[in-house]
Amino acid sequence: MNFYGLVDGSEASLKTYLSKLSGVDQVGANARAAMLATRSIKTTSKRWAIDTAISMVDLTTLEGADTVGKVQALCTKAVRPDPTDSSVPSVGAICVYNDMVGVARKHLDLIGGKHVPVAAVSTAFPSGRASIEVKVLDTQDAINAGASEIDMVIDRGAFLEGRLIDVFNEIVTIRQVCGDKAHLKVIFETGELVTYDNVRKASFLAMAAGADFIKTSTGKVAPAATAPVVLVMLEAVRDFYEMTQKRIGVKPAGGIRNTKDAIKQLVLVKETAGEEWLNSKLFRIGASALLNDLLMQRMKMDNGYYASPTYVSVD
Amino acid sequence: MSERIDVKKTYKLFINGAFPRSESGRTYEVKTSKGAFLANACQSSRKDLREAVVAARAAHNGWSKATAYNRGQILYRIAEMLQARTGEFVQEIMITTGVTKVKAEKEVLQAIDTLVWYAGWSDKISSLTGANNPVAGPFYNFTIPESMGVVAAVAPENPSLLGLIESIAPVITSGNTVIVLASTKAPLSAMSFAEVLATSDLPAGVINVLTGKKDEIAPWMASHMDIDAMDISGLSSKLTSEIKVAGAENLKRIYSFKGATAARITAFAESKTIWHTIGV
What we know:
- The complex is a heterodimer.
- Chain A is an alpha/beta fold.
- Chain A has one domain (3-303): TIM Barrel, CATH 3.20.20.70.
- Helices cover 48% and strands 11% of the residues of chain A.
- Chain A has twelve helices and eight strands.
- Chain A has helices at 11-19, 26-36, 43-56, 68-79, 101-110, 132-144, 156-161, 164-178, 196-209, 227-244, 259-272, 290-303; strands spanning 57-61, 93-97, 118-122, 149-153, 183-187, 213-215, 249-251, 285-287.
- An eight-stranded parallel beta sheet of chain A has the order 7-6-5-4-3-2-1-8.
- In chain A, helix 9 (196-209) links the parallel strand 5 and strand 6 (213-215).
- The longest helix of chain A is centred in the last third of the chain and has 18 residues, at 227-244.
- The radius of gyration of chain A is 19 Å and the shape is globular.
- Chain B is an alpha/beta fold.
- Chain B has ten helices and ten strands.
- In chain B, helix 3 packs across helix 4 and helix 4 (101-121) packs parallel to helix 6.
- The N and C termini of chain B lie far apart (88 Å).
- Chains A and B meet through loops of A and helix 1 of B.
């Protein structure tokens, strides 16, 4: 592997590469994210934004209480989010725990959802506290069951201790397991990384190690995908594109529950990374409750009156 | 010594237990009965209504599952809090409507009594309107009243405080949550009453109070799919048919009343019938 020629795989080269990063202006990032959040999106633009956001949703269920029935119901919803309206696009992917990957893939294929990929959360999600052998097997297992996207977590403990090369090597190893069978999304759990500088550092580390996507959080820790964190990560993929001509995707997850939040994310994407990122190949939103709110807003735009949660499916 | 500057009260909305200004930033002037400027009140927009519905819906699960006894206690508590502030309400009613002190006092005391009266109904309504039905089979079969969900009420212009309380007390007695649009001309006592609600152990979102123009907000109430019923006692008859047509989309129950009656409780209750097998 050549890591885009940025590092040679040694600890020294990784340190040199990451030491060249500029710091993040925390106050500036907060202010810019807050300023972009005030933008108002109306009528045809809003309609476009709602449909685009639906196509970007990684419809997620990551509960200890997940059942086969629940995953199948979610798959049905993923393919055709509003059963009464075929113009609503399918979602970006279904995101489940490893043991449900087979169930989801089989059901999607059965109901005409071959185009909807299944993402698996691997590598001892959500804590990442397991040996690399276990993580490799975990990933392999998900790919064998039909996962075409792997959402891996980094070892935050190692990152915070400064053992960056261990974090790097782990991502490289999982990248090799994924090969050309699965996309790799790397989850940082930004709520545990403490500073924006760390988020930027983790972003460049993961991108050089071969991530296809960088993802904010597991959804199990708060704060999760706050606007400034997403802004910092979008700036990272933009800068990385300038360095390597390679576009890396971004996936905020956790805490994005309504249409307004989702549209704010799209504004951030457009103004930071650019319009090339405004599609489900380069931007995803990890969510569960969000989809219902998007559908209700869509109904409001079509019918002219406010919708009720009674008319969308219960997750 | 300079003259002391009066501290004016800011009248805001009451949504989800908090006092926000209207999302639209609009206000309108409230005047005394003689036409002098009195205060600025918020002119709610449809988006304020939308926020209130979200709050009321979220509050419904907890409020409807609270025991009837507990709901009665809280209604009684509201009456206690209102009584402690009688003087303030008398002043507000006098200044906005121009009635005499005696009349204003009578209205406030009647409002307190109305709250106590509905508080008493809370744990009696299911015994009185429920039934144990004889059926041809080995079943217990009984019917009990349950709350409908989220109710929107348009309070009468006059009497502004008593009318408001008559619009909301019976609705929440059975476990509904409510969004009430207060008297347009005399909204001050409604917003002061919201301060009473905020200190009465009432869970956030059970009662939400909006002020503004009735012909602007009522049609949005009628067409909102997440509002289950409406009390349009305070709406001019010109708007009634428009409201009923819009409300038909989700089969809203739409009623109008005069005065405090027990019928106001049963109107906003659903009858649930339960079949239960008789054991050995």
